[in-house]
Design a protein that fits this description.
With 509 residues, this protein is mainly alpha-helical. It folds into two domains: 195 residues, Fumarase C, Chain B, domain 1, CATH 1.10.275.10; 300 residues, Fumarase C, Chain A, domain 2. Helices cover 54% and strands 6% of the residues. The protein has a three-stranded antiparallel beta sheet with strand order 4-6-7. Strand 1, helix 1 and strand 2 form a beta-alpha-beta unit. It holds the Pfam family Lyase_aromatic.
C-alpha cells in the first residue's frame, strides 16, 4: 500500500495523484501535529478576547462587523458550514473531491490555520476510509476559497449531509459510524479554516497537468504518424533548425517526432520530395505542440507554488500573529487553467486538420477518398472527422477564459472573484475532448498506413499499429465506427499506444 505522509511542507504531484486516484493511505507527521497544536494555542488565547477577531469572534464576509458572543462562537462555526454547503448541479468526480480534501488537509497540517490536530486527523480518517462527500458542480466563485465544495466536505466531517461509499449514496453520519470515525465538533475558527482555500481548482490543475503529460506525448506520436502516413518529410524536424528558435517545448516535440520517424520507409526523402514543403499542420507540429508544453511548464510552476502555500483567512503567522489577508483569491490558478484550455483547444485543432488531410483524395497522396474501401459504397472515416470537428468546436468555446469574469458577492464585500473553479471544470472537459480527437487521428493514420501496403511504416509506427490491431481490425468495408473510436480512445487514455511506441524504440518524452 502506498503511504503519503502529510507534513508541514508541500505535497508533490505524485502524492496528490496517489491519494486522488489510487486511494493511497494518509498519515500525519509528528511535526505537523506539533505545529497545529502550537498555533491552536494562539487561537484559544483569544477565544475570550473582547476585541474582534475575524472568524473567531465575528461574522463572515459582509457580516464581519458583527461581534459574536462567546457562548455562540462554536455555533458560529457550525452555522458557517451548514449555510455554505449550498452547492448544486451534477456530482463532482470522486478523484476531484479526494484531491480537494487532501489539499485542505495539507494546509491544515502546516499549522498556519489554527485548527486542532483532531480536525486534520478526521479528514485523514475519512479519506483513508474511502468516504467521498457529495459535492455539486456549482457553488464556488474561486475566491474566499472554493467555499461550497469545501463546505460540503466539512459538513460530512460533522456527520451531516451525504457521501458515497463504494459508489453507494449514504448519510454521512452512518458512513462515519461504520468506519469508526467520531464526527467533528468544531471550535473557534475551525469551520472557517475548512473552507478558505483554492484546493478544488488546484486539485483539478494537478490532475489536468498529470493527464496532459501523457496526452501531449501521444499527440506528438499522432502527428509523426500522420507525417508518415501522408508520405511527408522529417527533414523539417532536424535539431539544428529548432535550435534557431530555442523554445524548450518545441525542441522536445521535434526530438520526439524525429525518434518516431527514424528510418521510416514510408517517408519521402529530400531527393524525391516533390511537394517542396508539407502543410503547416504537419510541418509546424513541433511549434504548436511545443507551445503547449511550455504553457504546461508555466502552469506546473504555478501549481507547485500553490502546493507550497498555506491558504487561510485569517492566518496564524509563524511568529504567532493572527492576520487577515487575501491569499484565498484564485487568480494565479484560474489564469493558468484558462491558459491550458486555450492550448488544449489548439492542440486538438491541429490534430483535426491532419486527420482531414488523410480523407481528401486531392491531399492524401494516393489514398482512396475518405480512406474508404470502395468509395461511394463505403464512407470510410468521413464521419470520424465530423466527430473531431464537433469536439474541436466545443473546445474552442471552452477556451473562452472564465477568469476574466467576476460577479460580485456578499453584499459587495467580495466584489472581485476569480472564477477559477469554473476554469478548472471546463479544462477537465477540454482534456477529455482532446483525448478523443487524438485517438481518431491515430486510428486514421493507422488505417492510412495499412492502405499503403506493401510499403510499411517505420518500427515505432509499426509497433503502434500492431497494438491497435489487437483490438481494431484493419481496412475493409464499412463497420460500426463508434465502437472502434471508443477502443482507440481507451488505448490513448490508458497509455497503451504510447507504451507501444516506446517499446518499439521511440524515445518519447
Amino acid at each position: 500500500m502506498t503511504i503519503v505522509t502529510i507534513g508541514t511542507g508541500a505535497l508533490t504531484f505524485e502524492q496528490v495523484v496517489a491519494v486522488a486516484r489510487q486511494d493511497a493511505h494518509i498519515e500525519l507527521g509528528a511535526e505537523s501535529k506539533q505545529e497545529m497544536a502550537r498555533s491552536r494555542a494562539v487561537i484559544e488565547a483569544m477565544a475570550n478576547d473582547s476585541r474582534p477577531h475575524y472568524g473567531v469572534s465575528t461574522g463572515f464576509g459582509a457580516l464581519a462587523s458583527k461581534q459574536i458572543p462567546v457562548a455562540l462562537r462554536a455555533q458560529l462555526q457550525v452555522s458557517l458550514i451548514r449555510s455554505h454547503a449550498a452547492g448544486s448541479g451534477p456530482e463532482v468526480e470522486r478523484e476531484v473531491v479526494r484531491a480537494l480534501m487532501l489539499l485542505r488537509l495539507s494546509t491544515l497540517a502546516t499549522g498556519r490555520t489554527g485548527v486542532r490536530p483532531v480536525v486534520a486527523e478526521t479528514y485523514a480518517a475519512i479519506l483513508n476510509a474511502g468516504i467521498t462527500p457529495v459535492v455539486g458542480e456549482y457553488g464556488s466563485l474561486g475566491c474566499s476559497g472554493d467555499l461550497a465544495p469545501l463546505a460540503h466536505c466539512a459538513l460530512a466531517a460533522l456527520g451531516e449531509g451525504e457521501v458515497r461509499v463504494n459508489g453507494i449514496l449514504t448519510p454521512a453520519g452512518e458512513a462515519l459510524a461504520n468506519a469508526g470515525i467520531t464526527p467533528l465538533v468544531l471550535e473557534e475558527k475551525e469551520g472557517l479554516a475548512l473552507i478558505n482555500g483554492t484546493d478544488g481548482m488546484l486539485g483539478m490543475l494537478v490532475l489536468a497537468l498529470t493527464d496532459l503529460q501523457a496526452l501531449v506525448a501521444t499527440a506528438d506520436l499522432a502527428a509523426a504518424m500522420s507525417v508518415e502516413g501522408l508520405t511527408g518529410t522529417d527533414a523539417v524536424f532536424a535539431a539544428d533548425l529548432h535550435a534557431l528558435r530555442p523554445h524548450p517545448g518545441q525542441a522536445t516535440s521535434a526530438a520526439n517526432m524525429r525518434s518516431i520517424l527514424k528510418e521510416s520507409p514510408m517517408l519521402s526523402h529530400p531527393t524525391e520530395f516533390t511537394r517542396v514543403q508539407d502543410a503547416y499542420s504537419l510541418r509546424c507540429a513541433p511549434q504548436v505542440h511545443g507551445a503547449v508544453r511550455d504553457t504546461m511548464s508555466h502552469a506546473t510552476m504555478v501549481a507547485e507554488r500553490e502546493l507550497a502555500s498555506a491558504i487561510d483567512n485569517p492566518v496564524v503567522t509563524i511568529d504567532g500573529r493572527v492576520e487577515s489577508n487575501g491569499n484565498f483569491h484564485g487568480a494565479p490558478v484560474g489564469y493558468v487553467l484558462d491558459f491550458l484550455a486555450i492550448a488544449v483547444a489548439d492542440l486538438a485543432s491541429i490534430s483535426e486538420r491532419r486527420t482531414d488531410r488523410f480523407l481528401d483524395a486531392s491531399r492524401n497522396h494516393g489514398l482512396n477518398p475518405f480512406l474508404a474501401d470502395d468509395p461511394g459504397v463505403d464512407s470510410g472515416h468521413m464521419i470520424a472527422q465530423y466527430t473531431q470537428a464537433g469536439i474541436v468546436s466545443e473546445l474552442k468555446r471552452l477556451a473562452v477564459p472564465a477568469s476574466v469574469d467576476s460577479i460580485p458577492s456578499s453584499a459587495m464585500q467580495e466584489d472581485h472573484v476569480s472564477m477559477g473553479w469554473h476554469a478548472a471544470r471546463k479544462l477537465r472537459k477540454s482534456i477529455d475532448g482532446l483525448s478523443r480527437v487524438v485517438a481518431i487521428e491515430l486510428l486514421t493514420a493507422a488505417r492510412a498506413m495499412d492502405m499503403r501496403a506493401p510499403v510499411v511504416p517505420g518500427a515505432v509506427a509499426s509497433g503502434v499499429v500492431a497494438a491497435l490491431r489487437t483490438r481494431v481490425e484493419g481496412p475493409g468495408t464499412d463497420r460500426y465506427l463508434a465502437a472502434e473510436i471508443a477502443i482507440a480512445h481507451e488505448l490513448v487514455v490508458d497509455g497503451t499506444l504510447l507504451a507501444a511506441a516506446r517499446n518499439a524504440g521511440g524515445e518519447i518524452s
